[in-house]
Amino acid sequence: MSLEEVSLFAVTPPPARAWAKHDLIEVIVNRSSVEKFEQSLDTKKDYDLMAELREFPSFRNLLEAQLRTGDSTGLPVGVDIGAGNKFKGDGEYERKDKITTRLSAVVIDVKPNGTLVLEARDSQQSGEEVKTMVLSGICRAEDITKSNTVQSSQLANFVMRIDHEGQVKKAGEKGFIPRVLEAIFNF
Predict the structure, then answer these.
(1) Which pLDDT score is estimated for 74?
(2) Half-sphere exposure in the Cβ direction for 59 (13 Å, CA)
(3) Rounded to an integer, what distance in angstroms lies between the CA atom of residue 169 and that of residue 164?
(4) pLDDT on residue 126
């Protein structure tokens, strides 16, 4: 006799759900991140080059590929070159992101050990603005709740990409001339 047969309070748990390709699971995304980077660079380079010419080779011998000393006329007897380069730069980058959403994901594969490969796509268009969200990850079947949801923090190999297209994105991009000037004067 089993306990369930004799007890008034024993509850038999329902059998685990078997997941298959193309089943839908709702992924709850609640992520926030804060990034801050600071950098400082201070460089200084000095170049000194000195050369002295005591006798100037003969032009006729140079044309014949012979190196012999020639007449030294009133040519300069010394050359002195100097150069310097100094650069000091500071950079700072700070970014805060927070995203909270729910997306329906499709089971695209069930692995032999029972883990599920999920992928969700969401595209929203408002006028000329298009926002596309794609997420993917792997989860265990036991992490999926009875209400058919799973937290994004429970997904392994979680990847989320958000792309924006439209006039707002184009307005925030640098034009051709500023990019060329930035490339030239970046050094």
Answers:
(1) 52
(2) 1
(3) 7
(4) 86
Q: Is the pTM above the cut of 0.70?
A: no
Per the structure block, which two tokens stand in for 11?
Answer: 């509850």
Q: What angle do CA 145, 146, 150 make, to 5 degrees?
A: 25
Other CB atoms within 10 A of residue 137 CB: 20
Q: Which residues pair with 1 in a beta bridge?
A: none
Residue with tokens 């050094």: 187
Write the CA distances from 14 to 1, 9, 91, 146, 169, integer angstroms. Answer: 19, 15, 58, 11, 50
The answer to whether 25 and 120 are in contact (CB under 8 A) is: no
Say which residue the tokens 């929203």 belong to.
Answer: 124
- Whether residue 149 contacts residue 104, with contact meaning beta carbons closer than 8 Å, is answered with no
Low-confidence ranges of the chain (pLDDT < 50): 72
User: For every residue of the chain, which 3-state class applies, written as one string?
Assistant: CCHHHHCCCCCCCCCCCCCCCCCEEEEEEEEEEEEEEEEEEEEEEEEEEEEECCCCECHHHHHCCCCCECCCCCCCCEEEEEEEEEEEEEEEEEEEEEEEEEEEEEEEEECCCCCEEEEEEEEEEECCEEEEEEEEEEECHHHCCCCCEEEHHHCEEEEEEEEEECHHHHHCCCCHHHHHHHHHCCC
Cα–Cα dist 5/12, whole Å? 10
Do 105 and 119 touch, CB atoms closer than 8 A?
yes
Round to the nearest angstrom and report the end-to-end CA distance of the chain.
Answer: 84
